[in-house]
Design goal:
There is one protein chain. This protein has 91 residues and is mostly beta strands. It is 8% helix and 48% strand. The chain is built from 1 helix and 5 strands; from the N terminus they run H-E-E-E-E-E. Strand 1 and strand 2 form a beta hairpin. The chain is globular and about 45 Å long. It starts with a helix and ends in a 5-residue tail after the last strand.
Length: 91
């Protein structure tokens, strides 16, 4: 099995919080992870923003969602909404 076939059969999934829903059929997600500092040993929060495709415009700001990696849909969108885990109560 080649690397391309493995990537299609087991795509990456990440969870994060929606920080923007202003795009049509698109959302911006903030994904946070905890990394141990190499010298001091303290755990530091690192975050990155991901643009994802939301076909039904179902997500709102503050929702916790899971996205799955897919083929490039635009210049920045390479992720697709898989599920909405927790709805926001209000902003």
């Amino acid at each position: 099995m080649s690397e391309a076939e493995k990537a299609q059969t087991n795509p990456r999934t990440v969870s994060g919080v929606v920080v923007s829903d202003r795009m049509q059929k698109g959302i911006t997600i903030k994904v946070e992870r905890r990394v141990k500092h190499p010298v001091y040993g303290k755990y530091v929060r690192k975050s990155s923003k991901i643009h994802a495709h939301d076909e039904e415009n179902a997500c709102k700001i503050g929702d916790t969602v899971t996205v799955i990696e897919c083929r490039p849909l635009s210049k920045t969108k390479t992720w697709m909404l898989q599920s909405i885990d927790v709805r926001s109560t209000g902003v």
